[in-house]
């Protein structure tokens, strides 16, 4: 073989070795690239855990505000809300208990009346606890504030008069159910108005939260009563 041929052969061999080394290094680099995906997955999991924790904390704070310890922070609107809403609730409970003593009341109306008792009884207790926390006397007795009778309270939004209560007491069966639903619809509308005043003017966070709950619950019950009236 000539000297020229030998040089060309060595050159080709060296080039082939260089190419092989380059490909091997590229393959190693590709094998180590997936690591960033693990980092992304870890980051995503961490973000999800953080979001879940924040959601849980928010829900806990909302529950505490509505049902936890009562803040001493309050104003006259808060006091008025509790002092007026307690006898308002007491009358709703009285109307519902009156209906449940009657015969031939449609089951869905009787169940609704029991629901009013179950919901508004604890709210009365809650509002009395608020008054005590604010250094005020609790409102006790079925007649409500300071021994006021139904006639005295008729100026409160949605309250029934003595004549209204007598009419409900004397009615029977389906007629009693119809009268109860009509009266309770007006009663609920009055409670919603009072609760809106608290939301707008009150200062205590627990009282405001209760007022918002009253609005939500009683607006839904008004729609339910309207449907029951159509079914009678």
Question: Secondary structure elements and their pairing?
Answer:
Blueprint lengths: L2 H29 L3 H33 L8 H25 L6 H27 L16 H4 L8 H9 L2 H29 L3 H27 L1
Describe it.
- Residues 1-26 form the signal peptide.
- Residues 78-229 form the DUF305 domain.
- Keywords: Plasmid, Signal.
- It comes from Corynebacterium halotolerans YIM 70093 = DSM 44683.
- Residues 30-70 are annotated as: Disordered.
- It is built from 8 helices and no strands.
- With 232 residues, it is an all-alpha fold.
- It has 2 domains: 38-68; 74-231, Ferritin.
- Helix 6 (162-170) packs antiparallel against helix 7.
- It starts with a helix and ends with a helix.
- The model is unreliable at 1-66 and 143-152 (pLDDT under 50).
| CATH hierarchy class name of the largest domain | Mainly Alpha
Largest sheet: none
CATH superfamily of the largest domain: Ferritin, core subunit, four-helix bundle
Beta-strand segment tally: 0
Helix fraction by DSSP (H/I, runs of at least 4)? over 70%
What is this entry, summarized?
This is DUF305 domain-containing protein. The chain has 232 residues and is mainly α. It has helices spanning 3-31, 35-67, 76-100, 107-133, 150-153, 162-170, 173-201, 205-231.
Key structural traits:
single chain; 232 residues; mainly alpha; Ferritin; 2 domains; 8 helices; 79% helix; disordered N terminus
């Amino acid at each position: 073989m000539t000297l020229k041929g030998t040089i060309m052969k060595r050159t080709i061999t060296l080039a082939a070795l260089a190419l092989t080394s380059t490909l091997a290094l590229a393959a190693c680099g590709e094998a180590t690239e997936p690591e960033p995906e693990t980092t992304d997955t870890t980051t995503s999991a961490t973000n999800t855990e953080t979001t879940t924790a924040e959601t849980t904390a928010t829900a806990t704070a909302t529950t505490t505000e509505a049902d936890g310890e009562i803040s001493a922070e309050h104003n006259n609107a808060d006091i008025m809300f509790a002092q007026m809403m307690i006898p308002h609730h007491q009358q709703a409970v009285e109307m519902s208990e009156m209906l449940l003593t009657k015969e031939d009341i449609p089951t869905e109306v009787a169940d609704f009346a029991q629901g009013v008792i179950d919901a508004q009884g604890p709210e009365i207790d809650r509002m009395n606890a608020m008054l005590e926390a604010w250094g005020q006397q609790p409102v006790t007795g079925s007649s409500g504030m300071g021994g006021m009778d139904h006639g005295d309270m008729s100026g409160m939004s949605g309250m029934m008069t003595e004549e209204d209560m007598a009419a409900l007491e004397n009615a029977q069966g389906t007629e009693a159910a119809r009268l109860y639903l009509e009266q309770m619809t007006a009663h609920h509308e009055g409670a919603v108005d009072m609760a809106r005043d608290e939301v707008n003017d009150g200062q205590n966070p627990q009282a405001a939260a209760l007022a918002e709950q009253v609005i939500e619950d009683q607006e839904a019950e008004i729609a339910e009563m309207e449907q029951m009236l159509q079914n009678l």
